[in-house]
Known about the structure:
Pectate Lyase C-like; six-stranded parallel β-sheet; 1 helix; globular; Pectin_lyase_fold/virulence; cell wall
Amino acid sequence: MEVPVGKTCLVGEITLEGPCGKGFALQVNGEILAPAKGSSQWTGSLQWFNIKGVNGFTLGGTGSFNGNGAAWWTKAEDDDSPNNNLFVDQKTSGTKPTAVRFYGSTQVTVTGIEIKNSPQAHLKFNGCTGVNVNNVKITSPGTSPNTDGIHLQNSKSVTITGTTIAC
């Protein structure tokens, strides 16, 4: 699959679920944009772009995933109650989603892309083995609250090289 240069694709919550044939790839050279907070395309999922149960999958390209996080951050910052938790949007009663998540996958490569403005974590690996992240750029404004760059959970054999994390 490919998102071409110069194209922006508005994509609601999505799960790409294996098994797929080894060597399956998503080439992102344009931009994949999350819908705005409050859009009917948000159903309350904890992940925006979810990839699970794949083996030998590559997510690569020169394009970007834009999590459209500003609306989520504003809600959390506006809540001055003592119980405000920046992981949970108190005013809209929902946990903020992760931008790109791999779950239960093996031999995963993420290369060359940018992931920006996630409501919470930008790139997450949960229950994965044999992960290679290289030349990835992860960004969000300095004023964004607690937006994790790369979150590793129950994963092993992970290599991260040449990657910039500024969030």
